[in-house]
Write a structure and sequence with these properties.
This protein is an all-alpha fold. It folds into two domains: 4-230, no CATH class; 241-452, no CATH class. It is built from 17 helices and no strands. The chain has helices at 4-10, 13-39, 43-79, 83-110, 112-118, 123-138, 141-155, 160-182, 192-217, 232-264, 268-304, 308-335, 337-342, 348-381, 385-409, 413-438, 450-454. Helix 4 packs antiparallel against helix 7 (141-155). The longest helix is centred in the first third of the chain and has 37 residues, at 43-79.
Length: 455
């Protein structure tokens, strides 16, 4: 049973952020462990699985449609004291994402070879990529469930539960990886398949544990049956929020592919530097994303409770904290730039270029965090489409266009491209800040339209 007073006390930025940050870092670690273990098989296996992972990430982005929409509606419903509405959304989200995930899993697993050939995968890598894709994608419905249930738990104020589950999932995956890679008990050699099965097993156990937590500790009224009639109103509201958000993410991911293509025009060294840079600032991006997710939960509850003025001030506080945190970590990275890049390469030119990029990141990364926190706040308030439009227009009209102009046409190279990224992030952040200050989002409150449609 959830105690609303206890939930309210938990809803402050720090208490929400650190478990989410830990969970996100652990999810990143899961992939890094897999890559490390795959490296024990062969470099070809790493390359092949890297291509398969791109397809798997696209699938996960599709699953996020439901988890994002669910998170916003639940937070506003609980803030408004509408427990029944929140519970109905939970049931619909879990059932729909399971069935939807099952269909996607079957389609991708059966059509894996066609998809990999569409990505121009060399035939010599197919023997590694195809089994990995079939196993991971074939069981990807577990990831759909895990994403949805983690979002549910966080928005009910239970942020430590997904973190604890992520810890357990990493431990199980690491042990299973060790077993199939080093075969201490004479286990049959499974190669890439063994790594894939390790991931699937750890995720399946995580789903079971998360379901137990939701069933045991949250008063959600979970039922092992398809509701009749199916509450289409609930599903429609989830998709109305989740689809635009997924569209923005898709647009951003495609723009990053184009940006990487622009970097390839500068040569192998520039591309290598960008890859190393992306690995290092992944920590900063994860920190910003975690603060944004925590802020989204907080704002959703406040808007649901019709406390828009408090939501307004709390969001601006979150923005200041986020910028300060990201800037502080960026400064630390810049101070230790030689040591950080030295972990990856001994090339003086790459290390020197990396230092320049880390200097630009002193402005870029706080801007990224600034943008994400405000975007999440608008999303949580129900003002979903505005940040999507701003994101799509800016990432193509500013980031990509300026990347080519500054990096290629004006000959500024990789630093010019990172300056373009910086202008994009701050442009989006400033526009969204203006939207937040305008108060237009106050009229977008979702919960006011839900109670009747769900009854």
């Amino acid at each position: 049973m959830v105690d609303n007073s206890k939930t309210a006390r938990r809803l402050n930025l720090l208490a929400l952020t650190w478990p989410i940050f830990a969970e996100n870092c652990l999810r990143m670690l899961l992939g890094n462990v897999n890559i490390f273990m795959l490296g024990k098989h062969s470099d070809k296996a790493v390359a092949a699985v890297g291509v398969s992972t791109q397809l798997i990430n696209m699938i996960l982005m599709i699953y996020s449609i439901v988890s994002v929409g669910t998170a916003v509606i639940i937070s506003q419903s609980l803030g408004a004291g509408e427990k029944k509405v929140a519970a109905k959304v939970v049931n619909v989200a879990i059932i729909f994402n399971f069935l939807f995930g099952l269909v996607i899993s079957i389609v991708v697993a059966s059509g894996g070879k066609v998809l990999l050939r569409m990505m121009n995968l060399p035939e010599e890598l197919m023997e590694y990529a195809l089994p990995y894709l079939r196993i991971i994608a074939g069981a990807s419905f577990t990831q759909a469930l895990l994403a949805t249930m983690s979002a549910i738990s966080r928005n009910y104020g239970q942020t430590k539960a997904p973190m604890a589950v992520a810890i357990g999932m990493n431990i199980i995956n690491a042990i299973a990886n060790y077993m199939v890679t080093f075969r201490p008990f004479g286990i049959t050699y499974l190669g890439v398949k063994g790594i894939a099965f390790s991931v699937v097993i750890s995720q399946a156990i995580a789903v079971i544990v998360m379901f137990y937590i939701l069933f045991k500790y949250l008063d959600l009224g979970l039922k092992f049956e398809l509701p009749r009639p199916f509450p289409l109103g609930a599903l429609k509201n989830i998709l109305n929020i989740g689809l635009p958000a997924a569209g923005a993410t898709l647009s951003y991911n495609i723009s990053q592919v184009v940006a990487t293509y622009i970097v390839t025009m500068l040569g192998t060294e520039a591309l290598t530097t960008k890859i190393y840079m992306g690995t290092m600032i992944g920590f900063l991006a994860t920190l910003g994303m975690s603060i944004a997710q925590a802020n989204q939960i907080m704002i959703g509850h406040l808007v649901g409770a019709n406390e828009q003025e408090k939501a307004y001030t709390e969001c601006l506080k979150s923005v200041k904290i986020a910028i300060l945190c990201d800037f502080t970590v960026a400064v630390i990275c810049f101070i230790f730039r030689k040591q950080l890049f030295g972990m990856y390469t001994q090339s003086p030119s790459i290390i020197a270029m990396g230092g320049t990029l880390l200097f630009i990141s002193l402005i870029l990364e706080p801007g990224r965090c600034f943008n994400m926190v405000l975007g999440s706040a608008l999303q949580a308030s129900g003002d979903v489409r505005f940040p999507v439009i701003v994101g799509i227009v800016s990432c193509w009209g500013v980031s990509i266009a300026l990347s080519y102009i500054l990096g290629i046409s004006l000959g500024l190279g990789l630093p010019g491209i990172f300056v373009a990224f910086t202008i994009d992030e701050w442009t989006r952040g400033i526009i969204q800040l203006m939207r937040w200050r305008s108060g237009i989002w106050k009229s977008k409150r979702v919960i006011k339209t839900l109670t009747n449609s769900y009854s």
